[in-house]
Amino acid sequence: MFFKLIACNVFFREICAEAALSPHVIDLEFTEKGEHDRPDILRTMLQEKIDAASASGKYDAVLLAFGLCGNALAGIAGGNIRLVIPRAHDCCTIFLGSKTRFVQYFKDNPSRPFSSVGYRERGDSSVRTSDVHNMIGLNKTYEEYVRLYGEENADYLMETLSPVKNSGKETEIFFIDMPETAFLGIAEKCRTEAEAEGKTFTCVEVDRRLIRGLLKPADGWNRDDYLIVEPGEKIVPTYDWEEVIRARRDQ
Predict the structure, then answer these.
(1) Rounded CA gap, 28 and 51, in Å?
(2) Which has fewest Cβ within 10 Å: 22, 24, 58, 220?
(3) Chain-centre distance for alpha carbon 157
(4) DSSP symbols for 27-70
(5) SS3 152
(6) Full-model pTM
(7) Count: domains in the chain
(8) 151-163 burial string, b = 16+ CB within 10 Å, else e?
(9) Contact present, 30 and 91 (Cβ < 8 Å)
(10) How far apart are CA 162 and CA 181, in angstroms?
């Protein structure tokens, strides 16, 4: 099969490693990491790239290596071509390889800052804060939480969700490393910096399962892990932990 893959460049090394082993022909195109901070612009850019791939008539499907990413995928449509997207709130789920593993590390602190080889190599910032608290509606002000849930619950939510503690600084770094790039020493450099600043450093291994399944599905895409958007449908967020996104056909 012939696929067009559009991905954020934080996945460059992980995707290239898996694309080299795929039985399919894949055209790769990467966007800049900083586009995540401008979701409306990223949405427009992705739609233009998808439309161009659809109009070319060359591809069997367009694969998107993105999470929901600040709602950047909301409303994206495939036109005349099938889209396949991991069910992920943001890129961290894709790095970790599953929604289950993402929940394991992030459910109790959705704003936990994280980094990876790609984040350190690409763009100006080396650490990212998860978008999931925005996706599931946990991005309100203290006053809004008080009105909704009362003062005691508002205090708890602000303490639990905020990556910025009373000191005014991030207190931990969560690093997702890839064995093949360990020789670069990026994880150890990040650890040294974190410890020098008095931060907690946690390093876990990347799991390329979602990337691998996206690029070389053995028997089609597992619909628990991937959303398949058929021609005429568009992406709609669900803002939950399991489904994350669904496809809808406008009437």
Answers:
(1) 16
(2) 220
(3) 23
(4) EEEEE-GGGGG-HHHHHHHHHHHHHHHHHHT--SEEEEE---TT
(5) helix
(6) 0.81
(7) 2
(8) eeebeebeeebeb
(9) no
(10) 31
Q: Are residues 108 and 200 in the same domain?
A: yes
Q: In one letter, which amino acid is 189?
A: K
Same domain, 48 and 123: no
Domain housing 184: 95-205
CA dist 99 and 225 (Å) reads 8
